[in-house]
Serine/threonine-protein phosphatase PGAM5, mitochondrial
Amino acid sequence: RREPLSLINLKKKNEETGEEELASRLGHCKAKATRHIFLIRHSQYNLDGRADKDRTLTPLGREQAELTGHRLASLGLKFDQIIHSSMTRATETTEIISKHLPGVKKISTDLLREGAPIEPDPPVSHWKPEAVQYYEDGARIEAAFRNFIHRADAKQEEDSYEIFVCHANVIRYIVCRALQFPPEGWLRMSLNNGSITHLVIRPNGRVALRTLGDTGFMPPDKITRT
């Protein structure tokens, strides 16, 4: 519901100068800038941790985050913000990446926490969460998509570059939804730790996928998918 026409109360349109007035009001509601969304999967972490606080980055994971941060900095872009999942592995990845991007504000959110977005099709035998997880996590991850993945606000004058540090399931689901692909196919994609996925959202609402799970900036012996 971000199409300009949906933001105008047509009942208030003046009968005599309606068309001119409508065109003017539409102009004020149209997005002018492009949003660049960089979705970063957290680095490798300790799988043996029982609680989230124990699932900290491994030494290799910290190296991966350094490489990702260096890669983002090398792009020479003026990043507006880093929004990250509140889970430990995403928070630690963000802290390391942010050292390469001084001055970029960091925002933590529970919406981007890992979870089960929607039952995958076809199903897989090695991962079968309880059905209730899809209802609980799915609603939250869908809310994250609607909250963060949209065209620029009409007041935004310049293109923006935003980083989101979160999790494989969340990123894969968001990519499917953003490209209007069946979201049930999210599990058919695979993402490396510390990988970069780049979405572009044009002023007219069209979305393009520039890169998916890029880790070409990492040496082969540093690449993992755990």
User: Anything to note?
Assistant: The chain has one domain: 33-222. The chain has a mean pLDDT of 92.
